[in-house]
Amino acid sequence: MHGYSYEAMRLTAELNNAFHTPEEIREIMGRITGRPIDETFRLFPPFYTDFGKNIRIGRRVFINACCCFQDQGGISIGDGTLIGHRVTLATINHGLPPDRRHVHNIAPIVIGKDVWIGSGTILLPGVHVGDGAVVAAGSVVREDVPPRTIVAG
User: Fold this and answer.
1) % the chain with pLDDT above 70
2) How far is CA 16 from the centre of its chain?
3) What does the CA dihedral 33, 34, 38, 43 come to, rounded to 10 degrees?
4) Which residues are catalytic?
5) pTM of the complete model
6) What does the buried/exposed string (b/e) look like for 93-118 if buried means 16 or more CB atoms within 10 Å of the residue's CB?
7) How far apart are CA 104 and CA 101, in angstroms?
8) Which DSSP string do the residues of 78-135 spell out, in sequence order?
9) Per-residue pLDDT band at 2 (split at 50, 70, 90)
């Protein structure tokens, strides 16, 4: 696990510390995720991830600047999804009691097709966002979002 984390830090530093064309960004993201990235993908750096290999990105996905993906539990992003500035996708949490705080609770985040995640949103472990849903800017999402709904708060 630590080897992949250090590789993700190295690759995100490469991505974030110089200008890159869209083609170069896709190539670096392919190395971060360990899989090819579709030519319709767009990302505005900087971008941060602590693992990288558990991110799956569909077609026509746009990720805006300053997003943080904690992907050890797995992150899946469906086709046509838009992700705003400073969105955090967190797939790991810690136990609440002091004697359990070093225990990781891991659950995947699944984002459906044609979803819009507003700027500053935080999705917590285990959240599924249904197709066509909108999550308003600044939301903290701890429960599943049904398809074609708008949630805020």
Assistant:
1) 99
2) 16
3) 30
4) 94
5) 0.95
6) beeeeeeeeeeeeebbbbbbbbbbbb
7) 8
8) -TT-EE-TT-EEE-EEE-SSGGGTTSEEE--EEE-TT-EE-TT-EEPTT-EE-TT-EE
9) confident
CA distance 70 to 126: 12
Token representation of residue 38 = 């579709």
Tell whether the model's pLDDT for residue 3 goes beyond 90.
no
For 145, which DSSP code?
B
Q: Which helix (H) or strand (E) holds 140?
A: strand 140-141
- The length of the chain is 153
Q: Residue 3, SS3?
A: helix
Q: Which has the closest alpha carbon to 117: 102, 132, 103? A: 132
- Report yes or no: 119 and 83 within 8 Å, Cβ to Cβ: no
Instruction: Specify the 3-state DSSP secondary structure of 141.
Output: strand
- Contacting residues for 13 by C-beta, under 8 A, at least 6 apart: none
Residue whose C-alpha is closest to residue 48's, from 76, 102, 87, 19: 87
Q: What are phi and psi of 50, to 5 degrees?
A: -100, 0
Query: Which helix (H) or strand (E) element contains residue 76?
Result: strand 75-77
